[in-house]
């Protein structure tokens, strides 16, 4: 079995040796030498070689005769081939000799043709390029013409050679460049002139774009310019002259010249735009176009014509001049509506420029400055309104005939009075017309302040603070001065002053409604930390106190007028039994006056009554001690005492409710003790108890007593010139002298 497998393997190896390339026979032979039966394989190989040798020998024997025949034929052909070679050589020599001259002429013609073709090849591009140049110049395509000139000069003409037409073309190239430069500059100047004339309209369009976008944002619509198809500067302005001129000057190597010229002209136009103008809308819209759409478009569509530094420099120049012009323009404005329109225009202008990346903080700072001016103009306007309201008021309670009238007033002024609601119509409100009118004007002022604060990019807290501060100025300055004017003006009666006090009381009570009103429109709670509080309460309190003081002053002036009618006989021997006429009239006036005070707060009426009684008491004492009154008799003093008793009766009657006990009588206590001291002639008690807390005449000043006693001393001497020899008169005179001396000693002791 092993022999059969070995024989098959040897057969396979032999076939591989026969069929395999000798370069690859190595592995086959290695398998033979690696085997165990290589001797047997060698025997088989020898046998196979012998077989192949026999086959080769058979084949050679078979083809030998044919080979011999072929050799014989070749030997015969060799002679004929030699003859043919000699004939060909001879013929070739004859042709060479005969065609030598023709060949020279042909080669010369070929060389001339090649030279001509070469020259034409170099000249034709020049002619074609020059023809193209002429066509571009006729079509005013100057930038491609420059490129053509460049190719013509640098490539085509040098290759063409020094022909006359090339020389003429080369000489025309600088002239053509100059012509192209001049034409492009002319187009640029036309462009600059065009945008100067139409810059306000284009700027207005840019600002309208921003206005529309802001309106859309307010309406919460996310639409872009693309969706809305709003035209921009590139849609309204043909920038091709700028680009063309820039490219032309760049190719000509004069880009710096063009950039300097363009920037210089744009600066000049900016200065012209910002010259003082009666209508600030045109400069702002023109500047908006110049700096927003135009320069921004140039900045982003050209490489280096304008850069961010140049645009910012132009903006700084424009901004400073704009702010100066706006300040000058607004400083002469006295109409708040015009100021408001100007503010809205500036805000739109600032938003437009801010959208293109320009800093606009200074514009908003200026708007905050203008806010103060706007506030001052509002204060002046409202000053006139308040004055007119106060001048036209009748200072009488408002009569209300129907619920409709009551509701109309309640809509103007927050007034609630449950007791008044129970009274049937017709009835009267406690305040006069100026209360609802003033309150309505306060709300209108707040609305006017709110209008200015809109769109200033302020927070609700800042707006609330601004409105409250402006309202405080209106309350503490404008309205306060108007109320003071109404209180202090001439011919203001006590009834008007009483009504002013009632009115300011109700306005004071309405201040918290104003606080709520401001909080509602600014959405800032009134109890916010650091929130500015309205000074309305203090304003109306001050006005009420001023009215009260005016009432006190008015009452005192009336009392002084009555006292001027006093006509005492200071030397009368006997006093009357009734009060003086002037004093009776004065008491009657005071009673009727205090009857009007029923609607006043209790303390006001009580203070007015106490002030009047004190002033009356002080004035009576001054009347008694007046320097012009040199003598006072006991009879005159008795009459004076009757008048003081009438005053005390008035005080005791309680002309104004609310006084406890005889409190009002204390106003006359100084006068009463002085008169009791003299009418009772109780000097021993006065001198003995002086300085003690329980002294009966504690309120009698020794200076006052001495002055009055001196007047009575002189009277006693005059009336008793001839009675001085009577003993009782002499004793009385001595007593007066003694008391005078003791009073002087008492005064001297106190001064020491």
Q: What is the residue-mean pLDDT, rounded to a whole number?
A: 79
Silhouette = elongated
Number of helices: 27
- Sheet having the most strands: 2 strands, antiparallel
Q: Report helical residue fraction.
A: over 70%
One letter per element, helices H and strands E, the order comes to HHHHHHHHHHHHHEHHEHHHHHHHHHHHH
> In which order are the strands of the major sheet placed?
1-2
**Beta-strand content:** under 5%
What distance lies between the first and last C-alpha atoms, to the nearest angstrom?
Answer: 170 Å
Q: Which regions are unreliable across 5 or more consecutive residues at pLDDT < 50? A: 214-228, 278-283, 285-292, 720-725
Write structural notes for this entry.
Keywords: Exocytosis, Transport. The chain is mostly helical. It contains 27 helices and two strands. Helix 21 packs parallel to helix 23. The chain is elongated. It starts with a helix and ends with a helix.
Write a concise keyword list for the protein shown above:
77% helix, transport, two-stranded antiparallel ribbon, mainly alpha, 752 residues
Draw up the topology in text.
Blueprint: H1 2-19, H2 26-34, H3 38-138, H4 142-160, H5 164-218, H6 225-228, H7 233-236, H8 240-251, H9 255-273, H10 281-301, H11 308-331, H12 336-354, H13 361-392, E1 399-400, H14 403-412, H15 418-422, E2 427-428, H16 434-453, H17 460-488, H18 494-509, H19 511-522, H20 536-563, H21 581-596, H22 602-625, H23 634-652, H24 669-679, H25 683-689, H26 702-719, H27 727-751
Family: Belongs to the SEC15 family.
Domain Exocyst complex subunit EXOC6/Sec15 C-terminal: 362-711
Protein name: Exocyst complex component
């Amino acid at each position: 079995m092993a022999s059969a497998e070995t024989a098959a393997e040897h057969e396979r190896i032999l076939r591989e040796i026969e069929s395999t390339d000798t370069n690859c026979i190595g592995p086959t032979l290695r398998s033979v030498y690696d085997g165990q039966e290589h001797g047997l394989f060698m025997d088989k190989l020898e046998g196979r070689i012998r077989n192949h040798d026999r086959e080769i020998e058979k084949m050679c024997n078979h083809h030998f005769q044919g080979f011999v025949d072929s050799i014989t034929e070749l030997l015969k052909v060799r002679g004929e081939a030699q003859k043919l070679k000699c004939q060909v050589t001879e013929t070739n020599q004859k042709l060479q000799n005969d065609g030598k001259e023709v060949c020279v002429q042909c080669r010369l013609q070929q060389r001339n043709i090649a030279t001509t073709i070469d020259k034409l090849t170099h000249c034709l591009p020049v002619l074609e390029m020059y023809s193209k140049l002429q066509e571009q110049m006729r079509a005013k395509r100057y930038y491609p013409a420059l490129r053509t000139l460049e190719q013509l000069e640098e490539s085509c003409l040098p290759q063409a050679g020094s022909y006359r037409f090339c020389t003429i073309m080369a000489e025309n190239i600088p002239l053509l460049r100059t012509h192209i430069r001049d034409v492009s500059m002319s187009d640029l100047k036309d462009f600059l002139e065009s945008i100067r004339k139409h810059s306000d309209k284009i700027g207005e369009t840019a600002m309208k774009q921003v206005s529309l976008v802001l309106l859309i944002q307010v309406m919460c619509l996310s639409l872009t310019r693309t969706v809305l198809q709003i035209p921009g500067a590139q849609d309204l302005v043909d920038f091709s002259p700028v680009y063309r001129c820039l490219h032309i000057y760049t190719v000509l190597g004069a880009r710096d010249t063009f950039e300097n010229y363009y920037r210089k002209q744009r600066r000049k136009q900016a200065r012209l735009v910002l010259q003082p103008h009666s209508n600030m809308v045109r400069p702002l819209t023109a500047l908006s176009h110049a700096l927003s759409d135009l320069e921004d478009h140039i900045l982003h569509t050209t490489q280096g014509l304008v850069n961010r530094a140049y645009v910012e420099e132009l903006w700084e120049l424009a901004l400073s001049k704009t702010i100066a012009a706006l300040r000058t323009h607004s400083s002469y404005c006295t109409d708040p509506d015009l100021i408001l329109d100007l503010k809205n225009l500036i805000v739109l202008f600032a938003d437009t420029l801010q959208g293109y990346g320009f800093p606009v903080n200074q514009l908003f700072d200026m708007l905050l400055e203008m806010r103060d001016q706007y506030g001052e103009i509002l204060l002046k306007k409202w000053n006139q309104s308040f004055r007119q309201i106060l001048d036209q008021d009748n200072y009488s309670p408002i009569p209300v005939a129907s619920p409709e009238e009551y509701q109309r007033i309640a809509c103007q002024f927050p007034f609630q009075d449950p007791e008044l609601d129970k009274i049937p119509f017709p009835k009267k409100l406690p305040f006069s017309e100026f209360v609802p009118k003033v309150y309505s004007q306060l709300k209108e002022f707040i609305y006017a302040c709110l209008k200015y604060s809109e769109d200033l990019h302020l927070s609700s807290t800042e707006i609330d603070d601004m409105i409250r501060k402006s309202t405080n100025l209106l309350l503490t300055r404008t309205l306060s001065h108007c109320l003071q004017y109404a209180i202090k003006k001439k011919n203001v009666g006590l009834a008007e002053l009483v009504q002013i006090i009632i009115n300011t009381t109700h306005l004071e009570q309405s201040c918290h409604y104003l606080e709520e009103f401001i909080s509602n429109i600014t959405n800032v709670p009134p109890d916010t930390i650091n929130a500015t509080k309205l000074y309305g309460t203090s304003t109306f309190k001050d006005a009420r106190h001023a009215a009260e003081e005016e009432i006190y002053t008015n009452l005192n002036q009336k009392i002084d007028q009555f006292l001027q009618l006093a006509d005492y006989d200071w030397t009368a021997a006997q006093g009357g039994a009734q009060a003086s006429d002037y004093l009776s009239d004065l008491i009657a006036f005071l009673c009727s006056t205090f009857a009007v005070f029923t609607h006043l707060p209790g303390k006001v009426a009580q203070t007015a009554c106490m002030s009047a009684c004190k002033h009356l008491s002080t004035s009576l004492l001054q009347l008694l001690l007046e320097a012009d009154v040199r003598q006072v008799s006991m009879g005159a003093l008795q009459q004076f005492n009757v008048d003081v008793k009438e005053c005390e009766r008035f005080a005791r009657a309680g002309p104004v409710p609310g006084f406890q006990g005889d409190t009002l009588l204390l106003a006359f206590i100084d006068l009463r003790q002085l008169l009791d001291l003299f009418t009772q002639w109780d000097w021993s008690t006065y001198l003995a108890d002086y300085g003690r807390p329980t002294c009966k005449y504690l309120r009698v000043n020794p200076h006052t007593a001495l002055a009055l006693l001196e007047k009575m001393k002189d009277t006693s001497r005059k009336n008793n010139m001839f009675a001085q020899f009577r003993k009782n008169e002499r004793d009385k005179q001595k007593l007066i002298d003694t008391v005078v001396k003791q009073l002087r000693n008492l005064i001297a002791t106190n001064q020491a």
